[in-house]
Amino acid sequence: MTECLKPITVRRKLSRVSVNLWKTVRDQGGWWTSSELVRDFGLNTKTVHNSLHNLAQSHYLAQRVDKKTGLLRLGVTAFCRAPAGESLEPGPAPQVWGG
Description:
The protein is mainly alpha-helical and 99 residues long. It has 3 helices and 2 strands; from the N terminus they run H-H-H-E-E.
């Protein structure tokens, strides 16, 4: 009797940058390009690109091509994985202090 086994996947520990990028995409919602995240995070392009690539390849982010621009966009959907200790549900909105 043969038994089908699921392939074992090794989970790499995500960097703080990767988790913060993932949380931003999750909390803000929508679909993002890497250049939008580079601009918003103020990090170098290579760091953001590598983090997004790893997140997408590990199924933490979904990918789609924008039909109008042809750009690759990334987002968190119900089919994505959540990093350890995180949820797919968006976190609370940041509080604004002062007035």
